[in-house]
Amino acid sequence: MKKLILLAFVVVASASFNAAMADKKKTNNNAKPQPTQTRIALSSPSDSLSYAAGKAATQGLIPFLQQQYQVDTTYMADFIQGFKEAQAKVNDPKYTAYMAGGQIASMVQKRILPQAKGQFKDTKDSINSEIFVKGFLAALAKDNSIYTDETAAKMFETRMKADRDAADKIYKEQNEAWLKTNAQKEGMKTTASGLQYKVLVAGTGATPKATDEVTVKYEGKLIDGTVFDSSYKRNPQTTSFRCDQVIKGWTEALTMMPVGSKWEICIPQQLGYGERQAGQIKPYSTLIFTVELVEIKQPKPADKPAQTTAKPAEKPAKPAAKVAKTAKKK
After folding, report:
1. What is the distance between the alpha carbons of residues 206 and 212, in angstroms, rounded to a whole number?
2. What are phi and psi of 11, to 5 degrees?
3. For 189-297, which CATH class?
4. pLDDT digits (tens, 9 = 90+) for 159-206
5. pLDDT tens digit string along 206-252?
6. Per-residue model confidence (pLDDT) at position 191
7. Maximum distance among all Cα pairs of the chain, rounded to whole angstroms
8. Residue 71 CB: number of other CB atoms within 10 A?
9. Cα-Cα end-to-end distance for the chain
10. Strand-pair partners of 198
């Protein structure tokens, strides 16, 4: 389906290009004259409909090409030439394979290679782009002169795990050291679980239970100052949830905060996401939140059962089977 849609989009890109070039001529007197397109004869209602359908199919094509393929519209003539060649060879298996190679090359550069490099971020190892591509092509060509596919995969996984474990160990130690220092700051309190909090504004309202739904404003960041989430950047700035449906550190803090409070809470990894990755949050991260408890949401009253005004029958009705039997006797 996606291929059909893309072909439909591209069918008359040449028409859009010629229109664009005509506009360019009007604004640039020094532009070289462009060859005029042969006028198409529309000799039947079907011809007219087909041409109009082709033009209509290009709506949104240019932004799509720019976003999906990073096509510079300066080179639209090259795009059109490529389209024409592809149309002429659309059923040629060799050309299909050639075009697939171009698509995969783009995918490697934009997604696969950056992802592989990211696996070794903050470690002692790194990925060389040129050598990566050579290994990629060697696998496709069944070239096992250096490594078999199995050996290469095992080496990659082993090194990646070892490097990540070493990096995680260092990061975990950094966060533990940060918490020890932070605990000594003026006004910072530490609970038995290891949660640290500081009262910025003392609220005077009720304190929620774990099963209560609350409305809060908040900002979360890591020990290096990276902000990974903030309700203040959204509209509305508030968000609501049950106290027991979030990470342990949040539940503990919220069930100590009176409504109207604003606290800074520092959540150690065992009360947060632990060894799991969560978006920008790396394993073993300490989470630092500024939290405002706006309100405890009151549960909606349960609907009352509908009252009936029908009066009970004075005599019980006979079962249908008995009524039929009595009528038969008469």
Report:
1. 11
2. -50, -45
3. alpha beta
4. 999 999 999 999 999 999 999 999 999 999 999 999 999 999 999 999
5. 999 999 999 999 999 999 999 999 999 999 999 999 999 999 999 99
6. 97
7. 110
8. 16
9. 73
10. 264
Question: What SS3 string covers the chain?
Answer: CHHHHHHHHHCCHHHHHHHHHHHHHHHCCCCCCCCCCCCCCCCCHHHHHHHHHHHHCCCCHHHHHHHHHCCCHHHHHHHHHHHHHHHHCCCCHHHHHHHHHHHHHHHHHHHHHHHHHHCCCCCCCCCCHHHHHHHHHHHHCCCCCCCCHHHHHHHHHHHHHHHHHHHHHHHHHHHHHHHHHHCCCCCCEECCCCCEEEEEECCCCCCCCCCCEEEEEEEEECCCCCEEEEHHHCCCCCEEEEHHHCCHHHHHHHCCCCCCCEEEEEECHHHCCCCCCECCECCCCCEEEEEEEEEEECCCCCCCCCCCCCCCCCCCCCCHHHHHHHHHHC
For the chain, the structural domain boundaries read 2-28+41-88, 189-297
CA 98 to chain centre: 31
Tens of pLDDT, residues 284-315: 999 999 999 999 998 776 655 555 544 444 44
Q: What b/e sequence results for 293-322 when a residue is b if at least 16 CB atoms lie within 10 Å of its CB, and e otherwise?
A: bbbbeeeeeeeeeeeeeeeeeeeeeeeeee
Q: With 50 as the cut, is the pLDDT of residue 34 above it?
A: no
Number of residues that make up the chain? 330
**CA–CA separation, 96 and 88 (whole Å):** 11
CB atoms within 10 A of CB 161: 11
Integer Cα distance of 152 and 145 in angstroms: 12
Q: Please state the pTM of the whole predicted model.
A: 0.63
For 185, other C-beta atoms within 10 Å of its C-beta total 11
